[in-house]
Amino acid sequence: MIRVISFVVGVVFAGVLLIAMIGNLSTYFTSPPAPLPAEEFHKEPKPLKLASDGPFGRFDNQQLQRGFQVYSEVCSACHSLKLASFRELKGLGYNEAEIKKIASDWKTEVPSINPDTGEPATRKALPSDTFPAPFPNETAARAANNNALPPDLTLITKAREGGAAYVYSLLTGYQNQPAELLHKFPDAKTPPGLHYNPYFANLNIAMPQPIKGGEVTFADGTPNTLENEARDVAAFLVWAGEPNLGNRHAAGLAVVVFLLFASVLAYLAYRQIWHEAKRVVRATGPLDPENQAKTARAKAKAKIAG
Amino acid sequence: MSFSWAKPYEPKHPFMRWLDDRLPLPRIVYHATGPGYPVPRNLNLWWNFGVLAGIFLTIQIITGIVLAMHFYATADGAFNSVNQLIMRDVNAGWLLRYAHMNGASFFFIVVYVHIFRGLFYGSYKAPRELVWMLGLVIYLLMMATAFMGYVLPWGQMSYWGAQVITGFFSAFPLVGEPIRVWLLGGYAPDQAALTRFFSLHYLLPFVIAAVVILHIWALHIPGSGNPTGVDVKEEKDTLPFHPFYTAKDGWFAGAFLTLYAIVTFYAPNYLGHADNYIPANALSTPAHIVPEWYFWPFYAILRSFTADFILPAKLWGVLAMFTSILLLFFLPWLDKSPVRSGSYRPVFKRFFLLLIVDVIVLGYVGGAEINPFNIALGQIAAAYYFLHFLVILPIVSAFETPDPLPNSISESVLHGEAAEAAPAGQGKPRRGSVATAG
Asked: Which residues constitute the domain of residue A292?
């Protein structure tokens, strides 16, 4: 009975799937969906090599400091870094006095209250504070940015497919709309207020080109080209999203080496324990092929003929 | 426990004798995973995954309990407590979280291997039907736990995953929508849903642990199966669990945990989805809502039903998805072949291979972008999934002629025993004698 019911259920499901497939494919062939510009002109992120890549990757503090400079002098005008605190800048190689200064010099102050009146007020940031957001709330951020919301950057390299390479490609990917695109899709002209960028999912991004090269002067003398600025800020944002990356890679090496070592020891113990059990079953007599082979090997070793 | 030659528990230390007279807990352990449990001597590496599943359940419970100490189950605080407090400020919090995140994936990898091991070697057949069914209960509980755990960080995929999965219930006419609202505690996922998911996510692993005990208890009545599917007949067919299988499980667990460590430390977000690092936003739907990889085959089945044939497509999809798991409960009665092991079933073996390919295709389709070709591929694969279990398996099991079975387990692992009795040079090792050696 159970098999009769199951037979019916199986055939019904398969039948409904068949009907669905026929409908699906016939719709596709009779009225194929119109191609979209994003399908044809969207580009995968350019390859980007950073010091933090790979299992032995470590952050390059010089590069992180340059990237932080780009963030603080350019990006932080619109983008928050809400989950990171000033004290974490220690990971970039700054000392406590420098961190204190960076915090108190930060262009946005921290919301607070006036200790005498209780009125809302602001105070200078402390190393224990998270980076103050440039806008007090989403409405203010949208109002100042043509109704677009600049996303928080703390986790941006983890929150986008492609990670740091995506950030780097996006920053260096601003260009004019290709003539080919306009020729193929005359209606797809980038609307006013948006900017063409083939690395952005729908090709038109609200953010105007933020860096063109020359915005910052790097203290270590690195040329301030667009490429360098974009690469360094991408490296900094990897750090911002994953400040423990160095620890993680180091701890991972220790754990993997330990586990391999323990597994090999455990495997040898296993061989030792099972040796007896396997020998017992195999010791079935002189005609066992394995025993014959062993005998032959032993004879060859002892140089006994026959 | 199950065999007369099982080594009896004889505590030597006076304290252990004292304890054994009052609370025979060590005796139970001795007969469950100690020298007092005789196990077929020919188990291959596929049999290691049961113990591994237990190891991963333990890892999940330990890391999970510590994570729960730092987690805020509030719609405003959940995302930051995970991504700021735990990932940045808690000592080794990043390790706990990545170990827990990837531990879930590896728990599923292990359990999928364990399930397919059971499917191939007929572990669901008499007298182990209840072992199989309790295992499926564990699997269902795991799915519920994993889903609710994925909601807790309150990222975009958490939120929209909760939206989609609780939306399954609204496919049912009349009662569906009220059930969905009742489950969520509101019209959309919000504080009420988050708090109850956290509560259940903490509860269910302990329910799983309890069902695991039943699963092992039920297994120990007939004893473990084995790759030949032939019953244990005498003492030389078996070896005591300890030290033989503890040693074998030990090194294999070490090797498998190495793989787990490599992913956890070097590619912790590889198995996840980038969108879950964006805080939940009810006003912005992600471009592609996909569940975690271990649900992809079921998600593909759900999405394959695209036609309103008598019933709405969505209802077909939900019914098919539930059926795809529930049908496994009936497997012991669908596959009537008296031969347990797929090694001796030439026709079954081929279809089994096809099933594995089929499930991998379903997994691919479930995670891939929606386009007409992927949908058509998913529809073929989903149809085969149902036909395999509900139509092909019963027919094959009725008409197939199995290969000859070895007379006993020890014979199957002996080398040249058959040759022993034959005149010199004329004996041949039995077929399958090498292939099934443990």
From this structure: 256-302
